[in-house]
Amino acid sequence: MTTSEPASTPAPPAPQRSKGFVIGRVAGAPVIVTRSWFLAAFILTILFVPNVQALAPGLGAGAYLVAFAFVLLLFGSVFLHEAAHALVARARGQNVTELAVTLWGGHTAYTGGLGRPLDGFLVAVVGPLTNLALAAGFWFAYQASPVLNVPTLLLYAGALSNAFVGAFNLLPGLPLDGGQILESIVWAGTGKRTTGTIIAGWVGRVVAVGVLVWALAVPFVQGTTPRLTTVLWSALIGAFLWAGAGAAITNGLRREAIDGLSAAALAGPAVLVPLGSTVAGALSARAAAAGGGVPAHYVVVVGGHDDAPVAVLDGDAVDAVPASARELTQVDAVAVPFVPGSAVHPEMSGTALLTHLAQRSGGARLVPVVDAGRVTGVLDLADVARAVRAT
C-alpha cells in the first residue's frame, strides 16, 4: 500500500483518476475498486482454496466461498489502511483525490505538497499501524473463540494477514509506507526532502531484491526446494517495488533540479518607465537599456507610486500604434496590468516559486520580479514551464 503526492507545477493539471467502480467517498475523495482488483480476487481465491480444504476438508465446494470471504476480509483491511492515510492526509492540509483498491493492494493519492517531515511521517505510519491494530483485534477474537470453526479460521487468517501487511509496509524503502517514513526521518535530519526521497528510493531497491532473495534463500537454508508459486509472486512483488523505487529516485532528482530553478535566473531583463510616459519615450528607454543589444529582449514595465510595478507594455498593442502617434500616446493605453500580489522576489526558487506562481499569477503570463521595491526583471511563465519540463 502506498501514498502518492503529485509534484507541483506552475499550472498543475487535474489529477487523473484511476479507472474502476466508485463505491463511496472518504475524506471527500472517491473510493475506487479498479478492474485489476477482480483479477487479484480471483487468483487469491484459487490460491487460498487448498489451504481452506486442508483445514476444513468437509466443506467441499464451500471452500471456494470461504476462500473468497478471506479475500474480501483482506481487501477490507486494505481499504481501512488507505482510509487511515486519507483521513490523516486531509487533517494535515492535503487535498485527497482518490482511494483506490488495486491488483497490488491499494493507494491513496493527494495533492498540496507536504510542508514538513512530520506531515509525511504521520500520513505514512498510520496505514501500517491500522493493520497492526486490526491484527491484534483479530487475534484476541480468535483466542476468545471457544471452538475451531470456519469463522474462527477467518479470524486467524485476518490476524496473520494484517500482521504481515502491517510489518511488510514498514520496510524502509519507497514505494512502501516505511520508505516514506524513512524519507521523512532523513528530511528532518538533513533539512532536504530530496535527499530523503533518493535515499529511501535506493533502500527500496534493496528491499525489492531482498524479497526475491528471501523466496529463494529460505527454502535453501531449510534444505527444501523453493515453491514455484512463491518465487513467481516474490518476483512480481519485487518488480513492482523496484519500479516504484526507481520512480521515487527519478522524482527526487527532478525535485532537486526544480529546487535549483530561481526567479533571478529565469527572469528576463526589464526597464521601468513611469505612468504617463509616452510610447516613444518608453521605446527609447528600452533601446538605451539594451545598450546596443537587442531591445526586444527587454520588457517595459510601467511603474506607479514609488516605482511599484503596475503594468507591462503589450508588444502587439505598441506595434498597432502608428509611428506618428507614439509621441502623443501614453503607455497607459498600451499596457496590461500585473495581477496584484503576483510579484516574486529574485531569490524565490524551487517548489516555493512554482507554488506562488500557481496560486498568485491569476493566469497572467508575465509577473514582475521585485527586490526591495525595485523591479529587477520580469518572469515569463512560458519560460518557467519550459525549464520545469527540461528537468
Distance between the termini: 28 Å
Run of helices and strands: EEEHHEEHHHHHHEHEEHEHEEH
The total domain count is 2
Overall SS class: alpha/beta
The pLDDT mean sits at 90
Number of strands: 11
**Which word captures the global form?**
elongated
Give the helix proportion (percent range): 55-70%
Q: Tell me the strand percentage band.
A: 15-25%
Spans of at least 5 consecutive residues whose pLDDT stays below 50 are: 6-14
Number of helices: 12
Q: How are the strands of the biggest sheet laid out side by side?
A: 1-5-4-3-2
> Major sheet: size, sense and barrel closure?
5 strands, mixed
Indicate the radius of gyration in whole angstroms: 29 Å
Textual characterization of the structure:
Helix 1 packs across helix 2 (62-91). The protein has helices spanning 35-55, 62-91, 117-144, 150-169, 177-190, 193-222, 228-259, 263-266, 279-290, 315-319, 350-360, 381-390, and strands spanning 2-4, 20-26, 29-34, 95-102, 105-111, 270-274, 299-303, 309-313, 335-337, 366-371, 374-380. By secondary structure, the protein is α/β, with parallel strands linked by helices. The relative contact order is 0.09. The protein has 2 domains: 2-259, no CATH class; 263-390, Roll (CBS-domain). The strands form 3 sheets. A 5-stranded mixed β-sheet has the order 1-5-4-3-2. A 4-stranded mixed β-sheet has the order 6-7-8-9.
